[in-house]
Queue: 3 jobs
Job 1
Amino acid sequence: MQHTLSILLQNEAGALVRVAGLFAARGYNIDTLTVAATHDPAVSRLTLSLQCDDAALGQILQQTRKLVDVLQVAHPAPALAA
Amino acid sequence: MGIFLVNAQALQAETTTGRRPLAGQSMSGAEVIVQVLADEGVGVLFGYSGGAILPVYDAVFRHNAEHPRADGNEAMRLVVPANEQGAGFMAAGYARASGRVGVAIVTSGPGATNMVTPVRDSMADSVPLVVICGQVGTAAIGSDAFQEAPVSNIMGACAKHVFLVTDATQLEATVRTAFTLARSGRPGPVVVDVPKDVQNAALPWHGSGELLLAGYRARLRAVEQSVLGDADCGAFFAALMRAERPLIYAGGGVIAAEASAALRAFVDEFGLPVTTTLMGLGSFDSTAPLALHLLGMHGTAYANYAVEDCDFVLALGARFDDRVAGVPDKFAPRAKFIAQLDIDPSEIGKVKPADWHHVGPLRRALERLTAYGRAHGMRPKLGAWHAHVAELKRVHAMNYDRASTLIQPYAVIEAINRHAQGNAIVSTGVGQHQMWAAQYFDFRAPRRWLTSGSMGTMGFGLPAAIGAQFAHPGKLVIDIDGDASIRMNIGELETVTTYGLPLKVVVLNNVGDGMVRQWQKLYFKGRFASSDKSLHRKDFVRAAQADGFAWAQRLERHDALEATIAAFLAFDGPAFLEVMIDPDAGVYPMVGPGASYAQMITGDFIASRAAPAAREPSTSNMF
């Protein structure tokens, strides 16, 4: 099933790589990925979509929340659209 | 200079009261790093110097010159390995044995990449480390400079977190934050990559302050503040009181959480038998009547049968990994209820669904459950289950060929154990010797068993033992190693004698990669591709002597075992013992890859209660 996640990320060296690397290391294929600035220059918003089942999605959300640079993970994505 | 002109006593007094004795003073970045280490109470560093980390090494040297100690030791001892990997495992051994954060400092490029294995190993086993890497100057990053490596990329994939400090004004807060990250929540290694110009920058010292890390801290706070409510406790005990055969499955999280005493109190109150993972050995006294020792692929037969028979599992800081629950659906197949306590939300239900769970600090959760159960008069009636467990332990006890004239490795461990009595710190390499040590030693308290559990890194044992000896200078520390494992970091033999450590190094020599051979016998029709070392020429005893071991012997006759072990352990100083063991000795029991506990092979000397498992085809993709 197609899922879209929205991730608020601290703009630190290598932060984007760590998110992408986590998905790669755990075997999840990212279908689309956009990175955008937010009103806070220290924070970026990643929006990414991927195909996975619900059990895998739960793990992805939990593992992504373990990344130190990650401020917030929302699924479905619009929850962070404010 | 005039920066560190504070005498040691005065500094100690000030650091314990205010921690800002030097606030406002100007320091170099390197001095800032060392001052943060000093404030964190770091007394020993493991590392190897090099071009891009020279300023920090120089700052350590000056710090020690300016802070002489009454006992003559250096305030911040610098332990130099043969290879940076050794430094990483020394820091990890120090951390595992002490519960404190281990610190390693290495240079850029190869220094940092040699540190990758210990960092990944520590991540996989949740060991708190702070690793400081030199990096080429910020202007040179990305230019393929000499000794440049993309450390934040490489380490980002295997550490709990990595910082590349490009803004020197953030250095102090970053290094301090690294310690907080390493030890908080689920512990792990944190890497701080510091370009050389940042080490040389002139900075004001603040004496306090950490990075914000709003997301991490909010999640950490939520976990640390979560409390087991009455409803949760009630639901737990309702299920427990329905159970007739409840079992505790305790992992390394119990040790990381310093929850052993809380576990003991819980067991004393409610009477659940306890089996431990490889990482959990020592979390519960393995000599206690309700202790079932190790479970899993090479667990005791009685522990694995108890897992087969139980109807309730309480998983404590354990993650159902593939060496325990190789086939998750068949793990504890009769368990009607699985309860799971962990500090890491991602572990809940990751492998096996939990019927009840709590995410939070383990010690507090156990204490809360004990208090609730006590207050509500919960007394599970487990007499029949206790009798069953005792019978499993009696009938399916560990055993081996005691009549053989070849030296049996199990007998070596048993002989050492009779001297150590669960009080020594034991480290291991990886392979058969590691499993024999796990099976045949008694584990009476936490942090005395240092082994590379998840990563399974050969070469771990010797440097980890060195680190542990620095953490506990007065304790008996024994490295139980294999002939193949010790080769991986054999350069560290010299480190033992350089620092005069009274380490005891045992090599169980079966002339090859014993565990690989065991699998080749079982699954590859005995084709010993690359695992036979009978053509290798190394004389381990002479190697140890060349590295300065005054006591170095080879044991080849089984009738000399007891006397040799006694002399070896009694020697006052570094000692090295090579034991030529039965090369065909296997590790039993064994739950083969892809097999259930019911299909466990128990070998010729341990009673099985089932027909032997059908051998897996050699094409099995399980590992």
Job 2
Amino acid sequence: MNELLEKLSLAVESGKINKLSPYPPAMRGLDGADELCQQALEAGIKPEVILNDALIPGMGRIGKKFSDGKAFVPEMLIAAKAMSAALKHIKPFFTSGEVKRKGVFVIGTVMGDLHDIGKNLVAMMIEGSGWEVIDLGVDVKPEKFLEAINQHPDCVIGLSALLTTTMVNMETIVKQIRAQYPDHKILVGGAPLSHDFCKKIGATFYSSDPQGAVEFLERSVA
Amino acid sequence: MKTIAVKEISFEELTLTREDVIPLLGGESDYAFLMHEYLDTLFELGKQIFQIKGGYQVFDKLAFNQERQEITIGDITFDVKKVVFNMLRRSSKIAVFVCTAGDQIHELSRQYMAEGDMLKGYVYDLFGSLVVESAMDLVQNSLKSDLNSEGLTLTNRYSPGYCGWTVDQQKNLFALFHPEFDFVKLSDSCLMQPIKSVSGFIGIGHDVKYNDYTCHICDSSNCLYKNLKKQG
């Protein structure tokens, strides 16, 4: 792989946001994701290649470490910040259509539930994997998800819940979506959930961690 | 022994230290200095940020149904499931507790997240969780001191949502409380408000015990300490 892309990928994985950012200490004074992405574009590397060969693999590696219990939440969040610093250079190409998003992912914490850390983590990881993410927030009612599907018919829906009392609201939301869109892709996640629960309520996929959600989406567009 | 105790707790009274927090944020890793910066602010501003209040109400009209693993307090029955039932079944009294760190820490956490600083928001959120647990330690210690003269001991704290005891049982738990405990409210979906609050049971008796380590009896996947164990 191009050396610049390798450095960029490592900067994202390590959470090296820009030259001024003091973290990680071993990369102090070096260019970060911000500068390296700019340099890659200036070197004539196509934005799509930067995205697919450097940014997404960098986030993927930190996501995998988290899934394996080898990284803590802060490391993921720092990496996501580095990813964002790089993505700001790529975003104009999304807007112009030169680089295509992989799709639209609509996420929300279900009605009755106000917990959002898990949802936010998933949203950041998925955005970092090349998707447009629409975050509906917390305490989201079925109508909001239906409205989002109306606006983005090919989107994938993500439902999050942290409590056993609110995960049952997922069933209501899934039922209402299925009534109008029987085959729509619906991803569910949250601490009390399981594959069995996902199957029972008729959702498409359950992931216990953000990386699993990213991999599901990758498969869904393959 | 007081049957009802409610107290406001100042941030300075807590025994929480940064050594309690850092391991949950990844330990003394490469990025620990960032965490220390946030913690410097939190420990400095703690007095202004937190509105801590907690208490307990002791009940002695108890009935235990071994077959159904249910505990009845007064006329309210709790389906506490096997683990919690076994830990509490020798209790002669049960203290029902609630404690909160107040609204502000959650609001600050969400504000930072909304501004795009997810990391700061996350650290504030986690700190709020640890503050309320630390405050509840004080409440529990106060109950313990109160009981020492009577030769009674306490169990660990057990809460709906953990060890198989379902969150919907919060409704029954809050139905037990004297109006003095209305500083924490419960939503229809059993979410406590302020969010950084804890509630549950503590068993009291001559034949109950406190376990220093209880992770092995709990199947919660939403617990900081369990995740720490997984990563350690």
Job 3
Amino acid sequence: MNYNVNEKGYYGVFGGAFIPEMLYPNVEELRQKYLDVMAEPDFKKEFNQLLKDYVGRPSPLYFAKRLSKKYNTKIYLKREDLNHTGAHKINNTIGQILMAKRLGKTRIIAETGAGQHGVATATVCALMGLECIVYMGEIDIARQAPNVARMKMLGAKVVPALSGSRTLKDATNEAIRDWINNPVNTHYIIGSAIGPHPYPDMVTRFQSVISEEIKWQLKEQEGRENPDYVVACIGGGSNAAGTYYHFLHEPDVKIIAVEAAGLGVNSGESAATSVLGKEGIIHGCKTLLMQTSDGQITEPYSISAGLDYPGVGPMHAHLAKTGRAEFMAITDDEAMTAGLELCQLEGIIPAIESSHALAIFEQRTFKPEEIVVVSLSGRGDKDLDTYIKYFKL
Amino acid sequence: MNRIQNKLQEDKKLLSIYFTAGYPSLNDTVTIIQDLEKSGVDMIEIGLPFSDPLADGPTIQASSNQALKNGMTSEVLFNQLKDIRKTVNIPLIIMGYFNPILQYGVEAFCKKCQEVGIDGLIIPDLPVDVYHDEYKTTFETYGLINVFLITPQTSDARINFIDSVSNGFIYMVSSASVTGSQSGFGDENTAYFKRIADMNLKNPQIIGFGISDSKTFTQATQFAKGAIIGSAFIKFLSEHPIDKISKFVTSIR
């Protein structure tokens, strides 16, 4: 079984490029060039240098001793929270800004939900001196004020998405409309492993540095490259895609994908796409998505803005359908509790997204000798308001 | 021969109107179609509303949202249209995004179109390549013409491919934009219209996006077989009762 994208842009039945003709020249140019550009020695050199000196990679693979003791297994945390800007998102924006420059683009657009991808995009645009426009749902702008301020300080223009439900899905729609209106000079930096081919594959490759490092770091610490499990939370799925990438074809590594159950999978307020979604088309790709029987896309819910997306990347839809990955759903309450537990056992305040991945240890038992690597995709600074309200701190 | 192909053979410039089914009120669909025909419109695009219309500007987004709130679905639309061919003769095209059609079932959707007398489909996010490889046979089985878009950025090679796959007309997007965002055409638009006209394609072209009044209609049809008005008509419907439709149509030509 192949879990990577095939030459037509599909992961099994998922993926493809279902885009209006207006976007075809841009997406096609990217499709034709992305692999060649990424293989250029100059590109690799610049990308790796920036990951090292600017992002601060490699991110540590940290053996969480007290957490491991509590759950009687060996838990390692891949510390993407220690990256510059506070999450894994910057791995992808560094890659894509270098790609945009090589394609001769001078104007960058992006969508953002909680603002992490927006900040990571604004950061690399400042670094490269490129114009940056970030689309963000009007509702998200109101509830993520610090990230809006960060983007502005970094020189980005933050445009409110006023359509639909005024959240991430609509910000993505607005970014796509901007790209239709500006087809020549603009590159769209998509923040997750979603969108038309080649985006899911390109984003996955830029994020694959996560699993590449896990391999040699685990070899150093445990004498073997492969853990028994790799675990990551999934919204669109870019940190998960990067965490799984080099283990996809290692049958002895089990993959766990953690979705946001919101108030409960069957509560009507959830973002557990692998359970609630059906095959359909969103933002240019065929994947699993939450929709009505008439094919209208519905609004997901999660306490975590980064998991609050009605679809899932096509690679993950394929992993779900083939059974390669085990999908688990974690509620708001379970995630918040796990987040607080990490603070108190390890002195690390995690992003609420990452807290979902940590919550699986209450639900599932691992053997004492098993090695479980969890992607700690981001830090919790951005979520302080939510933590304060939730725990009445 | 399909009604669209017949209409394209008439020796006149064609005026085509787009409206969102179920807007302004759920049950306006049939009345709007009948009044447009009576007012002299040559062809109609019936918009099947979608929650996330990527290629549309604020006007059509708003009408789509309202139509969905009003209760419009594929099933409701087909029910509304079931007797439409008793009163209406001009070509009718359904324009909608692919996901609702996919959920209905592509073949079931095509079959239903044929039953109620729909002549063609415009599905902006169904790429020509996917159509060609997976759905062409189904569309042809049910006598449906699929219409593809081209833009000023579409390469000549791709235009020729689209021309070879098409059997009705080519929908020429006037400029790089979503719907409803233009006001008037400049030299750049005209140069593009002329470039395409000079390619002597097998299929006639109808220009859409940015046609809003008599002036832009005349400019567009100087080079093309016809023009499509969408957002400007939706805007009119949002400001006038639907019995004033003929006033809008006569203001165009």
